[in-house]
Design a protein that fits this description.
Structural class: alpha/beta
Domain OST48 N-terminal: 26-85
Number of strands: 5
Order of helices and strands: HEHEEEE
Radius of gyration: 18 Å
Number of domains: 1
Helix content: 25-40%
Family: Belongs to the DDOST 48 kDa subunit family.
Pathway: Protein modification; protein glycosylation
Number of helices: 2
Mean pLDDT: 78
Distance between the termini: 58 Å
Shape: flat
Largest sheet: 3 strands, parallel
Strand content: 15-25%
InterPro entries: DDOST_48_kDa_subunit, OST48_N
Subunit structure: Component of the oligosaccharyltransferase (OST) complex.
Low-confidence stretches: 13-17
Strand order of the largest sheet: 2-1-5
CATH class: Alpha Beta
Length: 86
């Protein structure tokens, strides 16, 4: 009983430490302007330390989300507080 609890705890610790996405590591981050990127430098460093490939993009310009029926990005992060919905 104790061995199974210990093994389960160890397995959860290993999984939590890895913290990799099951869907991929390509992340698109949409910002109001690229000048805002400096405000989130700790976030970028954390993502990159976890082997994410982070692409920064301004929300005002178009971006291609799929190409040849395949997703270009696995994750989408909106950090554009000034954007207004229609």
């Amino acid at each position: 009983m104790r061995a199974s609890i210990l093994l389960s705890t160890l397995a959860m610790a290993l999984v939590a430490n890895a913290a990799h996405s099951l869907t991929g590591n390509r992340a698109l981050v949409l910002l109001d302007t690229l000048d805002d990127a400096a405000n989130y430098i700790d976030f970028w460093n954390d993502l990159q330390s976890r082997d994410y490939n982070v692409t920064l993009h301004e929300i005002s310009s178009p971006v291609e989300l799929s190409k040849y029926d395949r997703r270009v990005f696995d994750h989408l992060v909106f950090l554009a507080p000034q954007m207004k919905g229609s």
